[in-house]
Amino acid sequence: MKRLLVSLALGAAALGAQAKDIVDTAVAAGQFKTLATALQAAGLVDTLKGPGPFTVFAPTDAAFAKIPKAQLDALLADKAKLTAVLTYHVVPGKVMAKDVKAGKVKTVQGKELTVATTGGVMVDNAKVVQTDIAADNGVIHVIDTVVMPM
To answer: Tell me, what DSSP letter sits at residue 95?
Structure first.
């Protein structure tokens, strides 16, 4: 876990020099290949390259690896369901870590995420493992689990 955090921190530091949109920032970090593939499959790349601002709770490749392969393959093949899951990870506006408060927050998908701040920040059942990766159209907070709308 420590190695992952150091790796993410180094990746974020390298990205800080030149602002990019949410998608380019995530791709450059190298930890979000599955997320990038999913965004492409759902047709959401152009949206997240748009003006925003967006706050994205971005699951790492390791987070996607927690989903059984057959279930992940089925999700990637179902554009409507995939779009619902991915937009559940996006909140309108740019919410930096210092501004996060416990409670419910409405997602682009329409349902609410539950944010807890006791003992670290949790978004539904996902732990936020890195915060404030700035992009020119928002911010990425890295999470360790893919969250699913109920």
So the answer is: -
Reported pTM: 0.85
pLDDT digits (tens, 9 = 90+) for 2-46: 333 333 343 444 444 455 999 999 988 889 999 999 999 999 999
At 125, the pLDDT band (50, 70, 90 cuts) reads very high
Burial class of residue 98 (count of CB atoms within 10 Å of its CB; 0-12, 13-18, 19+): exposed
CA atoms 93, 97, 99, 103: torsion sign:
positive
Token output for 15: 């990205």
Question: Residue with structure tokens 């978004």?
Answer: 123
Token pair of 21, please? 């949109």
Nearest 5°: the CA angle 15, 17, 23 is 40
Q: What is the identity of the amino acid at 119?
A: G
Neighbouring residues of 119: CB distance < 8 A, sequence distance ≥ 6: none
Averaged pLDDT for residues 41-67: 94
The three-class DSSP label of residue 8 is helix
Contacts of 39 (CB under 8 A, 6+ apart): 23, 45, 48, 86
